[in-house]
Amino acid sequence: MKVKEIMTPDVETCGPNTTLQEAASKMKELDVGSIPVSDDKKLLGIVTDRDIVTRGIAKQVSLNAPVSDILSSDIVKGNAEMDVEEAASLMAEHQIRRLPIVEDDQLVGIVSLGDIAVKDKTYGNADTALDEVSEPAEPER
């Protein structure tokens, strides 16, 4: 099965100048834990609820600061033609729960562990990815 068969197309995004407050509100409205950051359709990065907390609030960054101040710009990406198994493996390897799908640097969709679990019934792709994504990390002390 190909990623294009299970990905969510037409993903809601925010621009690099969107404030942390606006991004958090949009995540709440959409009931999601992350939102891709794009300039038109070109993917610049992704901001997660965890980024807002750990890179923003915990470091006393203003909620009026742009998401470009805290976004993850070194992101792992997939493509619509890749096999779901390959996407799950990539997600497991990088311990991520969501994989932006791009074509020619343009965001065309996103696939999550939930998409894989619900829509791809083949052997254990979601289980394998979830096991590896959910491996506990050692706290930095």
UniProtKB/TrEMBL annotation:
Residues 7-63, 71-128 form the CBS domain. Keywords: CBS domain. This is CBS domain-containing protein. Pfam families: CBS. InterPro entries: CBS_dom (IPR000644), CBS_dom_sf (IPR046342), Diverse_CBS-Domain (IPR051257).
